Amino acid sequence: MCSSSKMLLTIFSVILLLSPFALADDASYFYPGGSHDTGIISPAEFLGHPLAERASKYEEVKAYFTALAAESSRMILVEDGESHEGRPMFYAIISSEKNMSRLNTIKSDIQKLADPRLVESASEAESLALETPAITWILYTIHGNEVSGTESSLQCAWQLVAGNDETTRKIRDELVVCLYPMQNPDGRERYLNQVFQWNGPVANNDYQSMQLAGDWPPTRGNHYLFDLNRDWFLLAHPESRARVKALIEWMPQLVIDAHEMGSYDTYLFSPPREPINTHINRSIRKWWRVFADEQAQAFNSYGWSYYTGEWNESWYPGYTTSWTSCLGAVSILYEQALTGGTQVKRPDGAVLTFREAVHHQFVSSMANLKTAANNRRALLSDFHAMKKESLTSAAKAKVKAYIVDPSKNPTRAANLMEKLAFQGIEIGRASEEFTLSKVRDAWSEKPAKTTFPAGSYVIRLDQPLRPLAEAILEFDPRLSTEVLKDERDSLEKGRGSKMYEVSTWSLFLAFDVDAYESYSLPDLTTEPFQGMVDTQLKIENSRPGFGYLLDYNDDSAVLALFRLHAKDYNVRSAIKPFVLGGKKYDRGTLLIRLNENPAEIVDDVAAIARETGVSVLGIDTALSDSGPDLGGRQFRLLVKPKIAMIAGPSISSYSFGSMWYHLEQDLGYRCSLLYESHFSWRDLRKYNVIILPSGSYNSLLGKAERLKDWVRDGGTLITAGSASVYVADKDRGFSKVRILRQSLEDNDLYSRALTREDNAGKSVVDSLSVWGISDTKKPSDDKNGEDAEKPKKLSKEEREELDSARRLFRPFGAYVNAALDAEHWLSFGIGTRMPALLGSSYAFRAKSPVETVARLSDASSIRVSGLFWPEARERWSRSAYATRESMGRGQVILFAEEPFFRAYNYGTARLLDNAIALGPGFGSSQPVDW
Predict the structure, then answer these.
(1) Among 471, 498, 533, residue at a domain's last position
(2) Three-class SS of residue 637?
(3) CA neighbours within 13 Å on the CB side: how many for 192?
């Protein structure tokens, strides 16, 4: 064919594609038998190609929604925030013209139904349920690589705005639909950029290929690679905060959460299987079945495959569906087989296209909206009844309130309260000291009488959002006996765990605050929580003669230290406690000597105090009342951390992302990201801290001699999770820490070492014996003599078999009791114990000369919260959680788990902060000009 003929054919094809006949096929394909307002532009007309021919980019989606809102009074567009990368987050509000003209009234009436205290009578509640549209939210594409939902949002919005059929009109009349086209624009754009880069003129339907799977960094998460479908009550990210703010404002009765799953699967929707969070109201469970029946009918009309439950549970309250269910909405999950925006060849030979996937999502959305419209009044009545139940049943509940004493770490406690208040949970602050007769913290078995200071936070549970408050705060959520039996059977039969998520998550434990559950409603005067401004502390004596002291127990001091490091100021840390001016100062207290810093330090300290809220005291003397004087050697000069972190396909994106986020967002500190394949030729002398996130390092570092040399020269190496497994592997010669499965033959050796560690500092001195005057010990006193019964010594095979059996019962996200060496600099500002989240099959062993800074408790007290089988208690008993050891002039710091899991475990994150901020000064010896 000649070139001119080819050109004419191309032009003809484009004209045919853009013709009304071709584009009109979208309407009949997605919604057979429907009719539409021809004056409102369809997605196909706007995009210039049939919908789902390819995945639409962010700007295309936003432009279409903007055009649709401009053409119709049935829709408005709301911007409610920005993503990390600065993309505006937006959603559409769609309803009838009548409803759109009174949105503020509708919102006000819904808020009344959501809070029975605002409703004067039962008749008023009935009237509101009769006259008010129900609120429905459709949330598409929270995971960046699950693209069919966003494309469905285009068709769904057009159908709701332009559709003239009876069903669509009824949906508009009975509902206010809030439609979120994409919840994770940064992840979606990253995914589309990756797959578009590898696409070409030849279609590839192999789901393993980069044309569908994408590349690194992973595209499921947001900018910091977080799974936003775990962030609903954690609120680490602006995308989550935007959605939560809008949902609290609207208080929906129906929430749709559209996802994608494995390419070889079919389609899943609610109801979920057990375990289901106990705070999800039984009314919602009833509605799940109603919606599922009608969604199934819609799929049956096409002959499509689908299923419910199976692997999907609703235990963790941080999922979209679980969190919104605790809010009082009937929340429905969609999982469509993933196509990557193109097509996938399935094992049965069939090819699933992107267009089909979008069709499935669209039909599901319309089916659920139809069910909601047909049941509007009943949904509203049940919604209000759930809220009334939250108020009335609180009187019968065992726990009546939660109390938080902020004294230990005021900034962290206020930070937690802000997260709770943002979600609509009511919080009071005590105006004076008070005493409660029966309260219990997470560490205690029995309640006790406790006095709380003025300023303590009080969260009464007789409030409309009691289910949400209890779900995210309770110390120890309990799985049912049936679920436990099913889980154990699966483990014992070698099928692995059936748990889809962590078994516990309490924000009180994650933040490591002093929280108590109260078995009576406190009778005291409280003021509404007003936010972080409550904790701002002023600088005292801002123009001192000698220097400044900063209390390191509060998180604000960590932030202040990183600010001071960034400005290259000299800061010291107290090795021992001391008393000055009648006040006791703990280990870790920060000291700034004026004679070691330039003159501008005075103004900068004041500015940092205002920015961070840290408590700063100007001092005019170096002479302490007791303890070390401030001009002596017991105040260690810290070294500015120069941080690098390894990134790449072999690294866990979640582990990497959490620490990257923490450094940049929480601490505002610079970190260089070194791509794994470039590691071998990077100049490591630029850094004195290198972080290895959890990941596989076998091929990356080889024998790791280059990294070892860097440590020996004064570097601080920090490892987390499986990176610690790599370093502790006995064949690496990297660390003296050992993983349990490789050191079973040394059980006796480690047992004796633990005994020595436990007895250190606890000896009773017999002065007569010291001076040789008498020998008080008698042979009969030795209970370990020849007559004592010795435990049977297991063979190597028996030890390995026992350990393998215990590993079957590994924890999947449980809080355990970690005892701290309070004298070690890694523990500064923390205390003597902390809850640590554990979810690994690896247990670590450490003995001298390794410094075990955090060691798990013995089997009888190791479990704090969550599912932790007896076998796991025995295996992880007295294992190491955080260690520090010397290597040449440098050091290696190991964390058995992720220290900042999901950006909310601020308790263990403090260990990480200390490792970075204090480590180069305390644990290594570096050249002066480093």
Answers:
(1) 533
(2) strand
(3) 22
Average pLDDT over residues 553-570: 97
Structure tokens at 907: 């308790």
Q: Are residues 807 and 851 in the same domain?
A: yes
The answer to the question of residue 794 being in a domain is no
pLDDT exceeds cutoff 80 at 277 = yes
- Contact between 114 and 105 (Cβ < 8 Å): no
| 295 and 372 belong to one structural domain | yes
Same domain, 499 and 547: no
Give backbone dihedrals phi and psi of 126, rounded to 5 degrees, phi first: -65, -40
Whether pLDDT at 64 is above 80:
yes
Same domain, 576 and 701: no
**What string of DSSP letters covers 131-200?**
HSPEEEEEEE-SSTT--HHHHHHHHHHHHHHHB-SHHHHHHHHHEEEEEES-S-HHHHHHHHHHHHHH--
What amino acid is encoded at 759 in this protein? N
Domain boundary among 533, 566, 598: 533
pLDDT > 90: percent of the chain: 80
Q: Are 568 and 598 in contact (CB under 8 A)?
A: no
Q: Is 0.90 surpassed by the pTM of this model?
A: yes
566, containing H or E segment: helix 555-566
> Rounded CA gap, 205 and 211, in Å?
9
For residue range 455-510, what is the model confidence (pLDDT) as tens digits? 999 999 999 999 999 999 999 999 999 999 999 999 999 999 999 999 999 999 99
> Which residue range forms the structural domain that includes residue 460?
397-533
pLDDT of residue 537: 55
Residue 639 — φ and ψ, nearest 5°? -115, 135
Tell me if 14 is assigned to some domain: no
Same structural domain, 525 and 590: no
The tally of domains found in the chain comes to 4
Q: How confident is the model at residue 783 (pLDDT cuts 50, 70, 90)?
A: very low
In the block, residue with structure tokens 């996200």: 813
Are 402 and 384 contained in the same domain? no
Show Cβ contacts of residue 92 under 8 Å, excluding neighbours closer than 6 positions.
65, 68, 69, 75, 76, 77, 78, 157, 177, 178, 179, 181
DSSP 498: -
**pLDDT band for position 805 (cuts 50, 70, 90):** confident
